[in-house]
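Obj.: predict assembly geometry.
Materials: sequence records (below).
Method: joint structure prediction, all chains together.
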Amino acid sequence: MNALLSVRDLAVRIGTRPLVEGISFDLKAGEVLSVVGESGSGKSMTAKALMGLLPPAATATGRAEFDGADLLDADIAPPRGTGIGLIFQEPMTALTPVLTIGLQLTEALVSHEICDQKEARRRAAAMLDRVGIPQPEMRMRQFPHELSGGMRQRVVIAMMMLLGPRVLIADEPTTALDVTVQAQILDLLREIVAETGIGLILITHDMGVVAEMSDTVLVMKSGQAVEHGPVTRIFKSPEADYTRTLLDAVPRIDAATEQAETKQDVLLSVSDINKTFNGRGPHLFRRHGTRALDNVSLNVRMGETLALVGESGSGKTTLGRVIARLTEADSGKIQLNSLDLTACKGRRLRAARRQVQMIFQDPYASLDPRQTVGHTIAEPLIIHERLPRSERNERVRQLIEKVGLEADMARRYPHEFSGGQRQRIAIARAIAARPSLVIADEPTSALDVSVQARILDLLEEMKRGEELTMLFISHDLAVVRQIADRVAVMRHGKILELGSTTQIFAAPRHPYTRALIDVVPVPDPARKRGVRPALKGSYPAGPLVEASPGHWVAS
Amino acid sequence: MWRFLGTRLAMGALTIWITTILVTLLIHAVPGDPVQIMYAQSQGTTPEQIEEVRRSLGLDRPIPVQYAMFIERLLHGDLGNTIRGGQPVLDVIMQRLPNTLILACAAMFIAILIGVPIGFLAAYREGSVVDISLMVLAIAGISMPHFWLGLMLLFFFALELGWLPVSGSGPLNLILPALTLGLSNAAIFARLTRSSMIDVMSQDYVQTAFAKGLPKALVLRRHVLRAGLLPVVTMMGLQFAFMMGGTIVVENIFSWNGVGRMAVEAIFQRDYPIIQGFILTFSVVVVTVAIVIDALYAVLDPRIRRA
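Observations (raw structure tokens):
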């Protein structure tokens, strides 16, 4: 069968600097091509070049044959929308905030003179229904902020499909979504491909998604294609070293876990924590009384890594912030060793803060851009330990080397570092004052897979070398499986299941935990599954009962 | 939305209340005896007369009592009488306030009419010669003091060309002072519009609109302009407050018969009741405009409307 889209030697340059070079591939009808690579690999640029949406300074060369014309020919208007559709990563920003959903769905139909306004509304409603949005008529009168992230991504898909394109480019369409929502969106895309026979170009960094979705894979690195072939071949016998590195770096949810011996001494004891966000503030928690934590109790043992997993809104981040006393709980008690953290105030609270340190998700936002990294790392020492300057500088040198950077980097500023290096600096800062507990809130979610693997290794190393106790907050079950000793699964502000990593992953007892594990895409094309269970409805969320030694399940 | 506006109204009332306190204290903020200073320039005032004025202004009473008296009169719509002439302050102000408001509104109209399109054009041609020259012009506009720009306009259009009258009141007389006030604000609006539009144009939703194959003009008009104007609307409220301040200078240059000119005269004559009344009136105007702008913002931005 002839290819829908045939790309030969595509290159994108800004001035003389090449961003993308020598990309060639064919896309057939009904085929899913995954373009994989880490940030800066040029995968998004490739998509923009095909859409004719490159920034003005960039130029594209080569050929991209679609429907008998060359997409890269500047003299021909690109068949945007009607020929090729594009879906962006971030559904929160892909819809214009000040216009109704209905207008945004119908305007292109009217503008392309496919049909009139009335017919466009009818078609839009039918398409919304098709992509799984209930009450389409009502939704069309709403504004984007009134819809959840998953719904918005459905709207964007509907918006593009309405124009009847024959190729759809989806640029990281599920990266910003929860695993369960991701599964639904991937299912939807797969159904659309099967029903309409369009060609789908899926740009992603997630090997699990690649394995689940694609027929062929194109691996990109620094603007060049390093490998191109059928999905099974790429996973079974990757030819390029880079592909192998990429696959090895992926944490596997189905990997075996080794159980480390942990002491039984309790370091942190959290009991009956409640937290309700009230409806104040126009933007954030708009609904009145969002119950973020509902009678949460848990113990963290000396030297262990306890993972808190859950979807967004499960309360896992709030629990971390409450323990660090960055957010005040409404009621409950937090005890660290013999110290009652909830009772601390003023000077004593400041002294106690030394014991609990945080590592945040986004290393671009968590480091002060106007302080040298040396000063950032030294700050906890200045506050909590009166050391002579020379000794303090020595400690900073040691810390920087310990996290795998070079000591003379202390004089540089955060913008001179990559994301992974910044997260190393954030880790050095967190352990500088020798805390008893480190709370890491999604510390690797903003990083590329290969960088993530190295940061996880570093955290493991810190845990062994420094006897660090860690509360690891994450939505990524594969990462949790790799790093945690024990796991607590949270949903709607409650802990539903708590047990050792082996107990949770090998023998999950709670239906929600089982469903959560089940929706994670596994980087193995042989294990491609059909439509996955929806994670809706209610689950038992009563008090925890000990099902087997150390394994607690909500009844 | 009603809750949102309710909060804004309460904040506005609070602001005005704080202004009344400051206005009462103001008279004592000047070193020396206020009544002595008031009459320092006039010859032949007897100590009895001074004592009489002091009593009539209530300055012989403790400050909290003075404040209570001030508020009581205020609630009856009485801002006191002017020291020169003894007319009710409220009448004097109300007679001139419309002139000032007309001037400020005309200036705002000019500022938006010139500033927003220039900013939009500069953003559309970001980095081009057009963009750079427009923005250099804008910086020049911001840096130019009102009094200098006013005098230059007066020189060219009134004296050299003789197209427009030098001073006085009337529709033709409005043009020069409104231009003076409007042009520098147009520069501020141009810069803000430009940066806001550039920000919006790089958003995913604009790229998505292009990806749907919409023509450029439609994307700009519907997706970019609406979203990009939101910060400009906020700025309008702030700029209106500054513009009210600017009227003081401009009214004096062009002898425009507004409250600004009256205030300057009152300050020179130490006519405290007028100064107090002037400050209070300005604060009410500024607060009212701020609330109107907030309401407008809520209409434009659905995220606030449903809050």
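Conclusions so far: The CA atoms of residues 13 and 23 of chain B lie 15 Å apart.
To do: check interface contacts against the pulldown list.
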